[in-house]
Amino acid sequence: MNRINLTTVLHELSEGVFQVNRGFFYTLKALFTRPGKSLQEYLNGKRKDHFKPVAYVLTWSTLYFLIAQLSGQNTWIDDLITGWMNGAAGLDSASAVPKIATWFAKNYAYTSLLLLPLFSLASYLSFSKFGKNFLEHLVVNTYLTGQQAIIYALFAIGRAVTGWEILEPFSLLTAIGYTFWVFWQFFSEGNRIMNILRTLLTYVWYLIFCVGLSLLLVLIDKL
C-alpha cells in the first residue's frame, strides 16, 4: 500500500497547484455520496481518478469567498476571527483587530490551508488508535475542507436569494455535520459511539488550538 508520507505530499502539492486533473467532478460526487470510502481509496493508492487535494480546496474556497464578497456577506472565518480577536484582546471594534488577523479573515482560501494543520493535529490526536499518520489526516481534512466550502457557498447563495439570515448558523451546523458523516464512514472500525465522541473531541482540540493561535497573534501584535 502506497501510504501518505512527506515525499507523497510534496509530489501531490506540486501537481495540485500546477496541473489540472480530469477527476474534478468524480471527486466532487464521491465526497458527497461516499466520502469515507473514497478517501480510504485515495490513501490506499487509488489516486488516478481523484482531483488533487490542495487544488480542490483552493478551488472551492476561492469560489465561496467570491460568492460571499459579491453578495455582501462575511465568510464564517471572517466572523469567527473577528469575534475571537475582539474577545481575546478585550476590544470593542473590529478596526482594532491585529493586522495579521485581518489578513486571515480577508484571505479565506489561504486561511483554510493555514488552519488545516491545526484541525488535522486535532483529528490525529483524537483518532490516534486507528493508525493513520498526521499527513494522512492532513489529506483527508483537505478534501473535507474543500467540500465544506461548497456547503458554505450554497448557503451563501441561499441567503443572497432569500435574505434569510437564519441560514448563516445552519451553514456552519451543516458543515460540522458533514465532518461527522465523513469520520463515521472513514473510521468505520471500532465502537461507533466512541467514534462520535472522538469527532467531538476533534472539535474541542481544534477550538483550543485556534484560541491559542488567536492569543499568540494578539501578543505578537502588542510587541
- Helix count equals 10
Portion of residues in beta strands equals under 5%
Largest sheet: none
Give the strand tally.
Answer: 0
Task: Explain what you see.
- By secondary structure, the chain is mostly helical.
- Helix content is 77%, strand content 0%.
Write the layout of secondary structure elements.
Layout: H1 6-18, H2 24-33, H3 35-43, H4 53-70, H5 76-89, H6 99-106, H7 108-126, H8 134-162, H9 167-186, H10 192-222
Question: What labels would you give this structure?
Answer:
223 residues, mainly alpha, 10 helices, globular
Summed up:
The protein is mostly helical and 223 residues long.
